[in-house]
């Protein structure tokens, strides 16, 4: 029997994750979970209910979750759900390619067209968007987001909570700091410190003391 799944989130990206789930026969979407706006629980999404986050404790024994927030700030929502006993699934779309020598952590999503090369380790609750390319021997911490078409070359290390923007390029062997932000289209040619935003070609620091996106 397919595993019943709840999507954490009830906005536009939640619908995108629901579409991805529909292509995975091992899972069956049972509803969405909201944690900010109680009025959202009065509606349905594609005919499925929207639960308030406090309701999921009663379903935790039989259901699993996946978080559909594109922001790296999803850790708080995930923590609340986990505190109510909800476990998480890992979603890899059939037309994504993950090397059998690589590993993808619990709660992570690998979207259509993404590729993960050999001997790469992806942490928990990481979002690898459409068409993102992650090279060989890359270490990715938890709660990292790769935007559509982002390219991470081999041998890089990405600390937890980093955000790699759409179409950004990170060259071989670099370290990307915790909660740092790589702007869309940036070309990163040197290490990036924790909690900074970089942009441009080559990328330079444009903002300090950021905390992911």
Q: Share of helix among residues?
A: under 10%
Strand order of the largest sheet: 7-10-13-16-19-22-24-25
Class based on secondary structure composition and strand pairing: mainly beta
Through-space gap between termini: 37 Å
Q: What are the segments in which pLDDT stays under 50 over at least 5 consecutive residues?
A: none
Q: Give the topology string: H per helix, E per strand.
A: EHEEEEHEEEEEEEEEEEEEEEEEEEE
CATH topology of the largest domain: UDP N-Acetylglucosamine Acyltransferase, domain 1
| CATH architecture grouping of the largest domain | 3 Solenoid
Biggest pleated-sheet summary: 8 strands, mixed
Number of helices: 2
Overall mean pLDDT: 97
Rg for CA atoms: 17 Å
What is the tally of beta strands? 25
CATH superfamily of the largest domain: Hexapeptide repeat proteins
Total individual domains: 2
Give a verbal description of the structure.
9% of the residues lie in helices and 33% in strands. Helix 2 (75-83) links the parallel strand 5 and strand 6 (87-88). The chain has 2 helices and 25 strands. The chain is mostly beta strands and 213 residues long.
